[in-house]
Amino acid sequence: EVQLVESGGGSVQAGDSLRLSCEISLYIYSSYCMGWFRQASGKEREAVAHIDSSGKTTYLDSVKGRFTISRDNAKNTLSLQMNSLKPDDTAMYYCAAEAGSCPVVAGTYGQGTQVTV
Prior knowledge:
Blueprint: E1 3-7, E2 10-11, E3 18-25, E4 32-39, E5 46-51, E6 57-59, E7 67-72, E8 77-82, E9 91-99, E10 108-109, E11 113-116
Parallel strand pairs: 2-11
Antiparallel strand pairs: 1-3, 3-8, 4-5, 4-9, 5-6, 7-8, 9-10, 9-11
């Protein structure tokens, strides 16, 4: 069973930075598509960024140039560096994993970490 644990959220001011981390308990993590999702109060969950097994990344238009997703296959970790944060970035952030190619469609999610801007 895949388990994901997010950390790094918090309350910051507009323009600040945060770095989210996700630890994944998965033997073959390197072959998985990994993603960060977020859900703001009263809104549907949306995909923020994905990174596939080769390191190819995709981003939500509104975060391009501000957020960077990365993975460390040796440490089974996923990160999201968030710069120039805006109030619209306020949400619960989740990491997700799914075997195979991106995007994550029906994968496993962590419990989330709150980001408030």
